[in-house]
Amino acid sequence: MKIYDWHTGPYPARVRIALAEKNLQAQVSFVSVDLWKGEHKKPEFLALNYSGTLPVLELDDGTLIAECTAITQYLDHLQGTPTLTGSTPREQGVIHMMSKRAELELLDAISTYFHHGTPGLGPEVELYQNAEWGFRQRDKAVRGMHYFDGVLRKQAFIAGDTFSMADITVIGGLIFAGLVDLQVPPECTALLAWHGRMLERSSVQNWQTL
Fold this sequence. Notes:
Elements: E1 2-5, H1 10-22, E2 29-32, H2 43-46, E3 56-58, E4 64-66, H3 68-76, H4 89-117, H5 131-152, H6 165-179, H7 189-198, H8 202-205
Parallel strand pairs: 1-2
Antiparallel strand pairs: 1-3, 3-4
Helix pairs in contact: 1-3, 1-6, 4-5, 4-6, 5-7
């Protein structure tokens, strides 16, 4: 299998962490697509992924799977018992719900702030920017941090009692927050404590070096 990604990208981080959690690193090779040069928007890459986003998984038969949720769903079911996306219908539903909320309320909001409220990837890539919209999304991400802090005051992990893809999605959001210097509010003590525990996982410590 091949994974097209960029080694510091917050979205690729989600797939890399999942790979490490499933111990599948040896089964993939990485193809670097330079975000800062806009390679993900070039015709050659758009032929692989119409959306022009990273990461993309290419299977040995040539099948292309884009979108982090789809890629990690495939990887989690590739061998053995699923451990990240749920093994019962209830677990699967809750994990998918919380992972989607993490995308909408945190990760995607920070991405929009990055692309519109900061220089982003530079003028050759950022052909249109709306700073007001970017700052609104920054504020949304902070509200999202407060939401997940509330969740973690009641349970150990984002989707319940065990580590899952929902946790990995929030980790990706906080990786992105670090890149744009968006701090978790100090009053979000449960979220900060959870993040500290997540940083102790080897998959989170080493995702950039896979």
